[in-house]
Amino acid sequence: MQRLATAFAIAMVLAFGAQAASAQTLKAVQDRGQLVCGGNGTLAGFGMPDPQGNWVGFDVDFCRAIAAAIFNDTKKVKFVPLTTANRFTALQSGEIDLLARNTTWTMSRDTTLGLDFAGVTYYDGQGFMVRKSLNVKSALELSDAAVCVQQGTTTELNLADYFRANRMSLKTVTFATANEAVRAYDTGRCDAYTTDASGLYGERLRLADPSAHIVLPEIISKEPLAPVVRQGDDTWEDLVRWTHEAMLNAEELGITQQNVDDMLKSNSPDVRRLLGAEGQFGQSIGLTNDWAYRIIKAVGNYGESFERNVGQGSPLKIARGLNALWTKGGLQYGLPVR
Amino acid sequence: MVAADRIYLREAPAKLLPAPVASTGVVGWVRANLFSSPGNIALTIICAALIVWIVPPLLRFFFFDAVWSGADREACLPSAQNPEPGACWAFIRAWSSYFTYGFYPLGERWRVDLFFFLLAFGIAWLAWLGAPRRDIGAIYFFIVLPILSYVLLSGVPIIGLPDVPTSLWGGILVTIVVATVGIVASLPLGILLALGRRSEMPAVRLFSVTFIEFVRGVPLITVLFMASVMLPLFVPDRLAPDKLVRALIGVALFASAYMAEVVRGGLLSIPRGQYEAAQALALPYWRMMALVILPQALRVTLPNIVNTFIGLFKDTTLVFIVGIFDFLRTIEAARGDPHWATPITSVTGYAFAAVFYFVCCYGMSRYSRNVEARLARAHRR
Prior knowledge:
The complex is a heterodimer. Chain A is of the alpha/beta class.
């Protein structure tokens, strides 16, 4: 139903001609005095409100970083909560400037929707959670196990693919919502529960006894989550992409929210270029040269944002894993600012 | 002493004997109402079993085992004192301001409180039959209150109330605004459409029929989806109405189509003689409708009208599809909070929502029953 609705909406947009993405997004944002960012609204750690009604999360921080780069004010962001069904139409119709809503970068989305993905901010993938008492150490031992899964998602398809590829027999128990699936798993209707690894940690907290469950090491699908912009506005895409790269570079260079002012006096050419003490890098994306300084000062580097929202500083306690820096065995690799 | 001579005469009436025990008091009531026939006995036993089966666990969940205070999820996890915790009210408490105001700025929330008060005041004025000057009450409710609410909630920077864009509204505030606007707008619109559908002017009739049938033939969710997703494609960004306004218009139009059919049902129940009598008195169309036909028709359909209102109140939850955080959606958002994630957090959230919707809808239903009873009394004479 949701997918049909999406397909319908997208077809309508294409049929009626999406407004050609103006190459003026940055100017529009500056004139408006506010960045409009599409977010999730209900995903713990990535984008949801806190009890005071402030948006918090990893994707939210990314939008705040862009606001810091443009306005030097992380409050100048308006968040629009979007569903999986209406997230792309909201971007195509110009309702939002940027979509940062745990969206997987796939070829079909990149090539057919009139949208562009600007750098992978989070490498996610589908994982399994099982009871410790089951004594399963690997997903490959799950043959004949009953697996709870949300129906109509790519998760369900990946699950079938994985079991078929490994010649295991699969018994799925499907549910309309993730909530029902977790409840069913918790009450013992299935042996395993599967969804994106980032979600598994949040769901585990909702179980009666979280410590009795483990997340298996296998990641059976690639879910690179990326911010999305409209195709055709390269300046804006550059700005979004390099905001992410700046946060990565800051972590590689050891620049943190605390020490960024001291780092301004650093002699390292890499640090000086990133913080705008040398070169004209900010101007090349339509901003002032201290753009990255403002991002780090306001939001921190990539690692700080990660740990604060989903890592050790949060109840989710997700390990860095694939999202560690390339120097530490992960995939996050800051492109050089020079 | 006359009395002494006629001792066979009673001086006081005989003492009344109580009715047989079996037909009075608790026992009598029970026998007459609960155990009067085999069928009744069976029903009584089934109902009693249901009550015993359902009520104690509910009480346990809602009150006895509930967690009333705490700082985070630890409070609502099973512990030695409370091995099977019930509702986690501490979670509702921690999030209550978000459930009420959504993203409304902290410093401006007194405006929402004032709006709730003004609205409650207006409703009480109109609903309490003994209230003084209910005509002024009506003016207040239908003219003054909407303007005041707009000024308060949306803000007028000139008089020192900063703008609060509707994207920041949420929670109970949005639910109440959508429901109130829908209810207040749909009744007059519905009456007009119903009259239009029965009108003798073909253009008016055609318009009414088309509108009613078209709107009734489309699910509300589609109307909202079209309003939020398709409209921005046709109308330039600056001219497109606010998202909440779009939803309000969608809900109001949708409800008025249903209301039109409800009112039409009432109109059909009025005998032809009433129209003819009114015409014989030379009443023009509008006065005939206002003085003779509609008062009777609306009285007949009152249960259906309230039914539509209650349905509308619950339909307001659909505005989440256009990204508006109504009350239910705020609960759905909050239940993902990892600081409060426990097995009972979601259940608690939905239980709280159920209580809220039940209280509102049951209130409407009770009030309409009172009005019905009063109108029926007047009719009986």
